[in-house]
Design brief:
alpha+beta, 332 residues, 7 helices, globular, 13-stranded mixed sheet, four-stranded antiparallel sheet
């Protein structure tokens, strides 16, 4: 642990930036991870929000001593971070990439210095690349990247006209059974669950069964692909779901299925700590990420005046990179 007192020049800075100035040997990612774990204290109070600090406040950063002992001036220059994406397909205007878990797609309000879009711009020849949509930092899978602003505008038009369908895979606790019969974009039979999503000013999401002022409608189609009997902490099953988004709200799948009593395994925000602590990775380690992956992108019939007409009617698909040991019996 290290601590510092906020100076006049740091007054009003967000705590991560102030801590980065006080301890330049720390990476922004180290500080944001500490913040998420409530390992940063301001005047003795734990916080998980990147709030502004005031002159004279005492900030404690509870990280391993080894991180503070690095000397960037004497240490050899670090090698560039390994790419956390793989290009699955390339079209006239798009890159379709498989994003690793643990990397943010963009910096947003946080001062993250290594994001998916940063890596794509620095590693590929597409220096003007833009994100067409977002997925969560700890969700892996397919992301559409426009090669330039024209490609972005035409891709945004596809989303606005419901010409892109996104499907996910997830491991959830239990066996969901609620919902009404529904048909997916390609004729696959699903059940559809609906509800109402409240997003607070601080970014938290709550799901309601009855609509409240400001709520957004949500709908998700799902089907069970496999069930792992007795894999849960109290002998519950674990289900491998395929999900098709009807609406695409913030944290929709994770929040909605947690609300239904079937949290995504490994989800630290909407899941249950007892459940998450029960599971291990295939190599016996703690499960670090939610078992949720963007696995399929389906394109509808695209008009000829849109530059992405070359993907009209096409589907791009990958498998989920689950990393959980489910040692109990399996039934299909």
């Amino acid at each position: 642990m290290r601590k510092f007192t906020v100076t006049k020049s740091q007054d009003g800075l967000h705590v991560v930036k102030a801590a980065g100035q006080a301890f330049p040997e720390l990476k922004s990612s180290d500080l944001f991870h500490a913040l998420k774990r409530k390992d940063i204290r301001i005047d003795g109070k734990k916080t998980d929000k990147d709030i502004a600090v005031k002159t004279g406040s005492e900030v404690e950063v509870w990280l391993p001593d080894s991180l503070f002992e690095k000397n960037p001036q004497s240490a050899p220059k670090a090698k560039p971070a390994a790419p956390m994406f793989e290009i699955v397909a390339e079209t006239r205007g798009l890159l379709i990439v498989n994003k690793s878990q643990g990397i943010a797609v963009h910096s947003g309000k946080s001062d993250i210095d290594d994001t998916l879009i940063d890596q794509i711009r620095s590693i590929t020849k597409y220096k003007d690349a833009e994100l067409c949509h977002r997925i969560d930092m700890n969700t892996g899978g397919l992301v559409l990247i426009a090669k330039n602003k024209k490609a972005l505008a035409d891709c945004v038009a596809l989303f606005k006209n419901d010409l892109v369908t996104k499907r996910y895979r997830a491991l959830v606790l239990g066996e969901p059974s609620v919902g009404e019969p529904a048909v997916g974009e390609d004729g696959t039979l699903f059940k559809e669950v609906t509800g109402y999503l409240e997003k607070t000013k601080n970014g938290k999401v709550f799901i309601h069964d009855a609509k409240q002022p400001g709520d957004l409608d949500i709908a998700t189609k799902y089907r069970i692909l496999k069930t792992f009997n007795g894999a849960g902490p109290d002998g519950e099953s674990v289900s491998d779901l395929e999900l098709e988004l009807v609406t695409g709200r913030t944290h929709q799948i994770r929040a909605q299925f947690a609300h239904l009593g079937h949290p995504v395994i490994g989800d630290g925000n909407y899941g249950r700590n007892k459940v998450n602590m029960h599971f291990e990775t295939v190599d016996g380690k703690k499960v670090r990420y939610q078992q949720l992956f963007s696995c399929q992108l389906m394109f509808g019939r695209i008009p000829g005046d849109n530059m992405h007409v070359d993907v009209s009617g096409k589907t791009f698909k990958i498998g989920p990179d689950y990393n959980v040991a489910l040692n109990k019996g399996k039934k299909d």
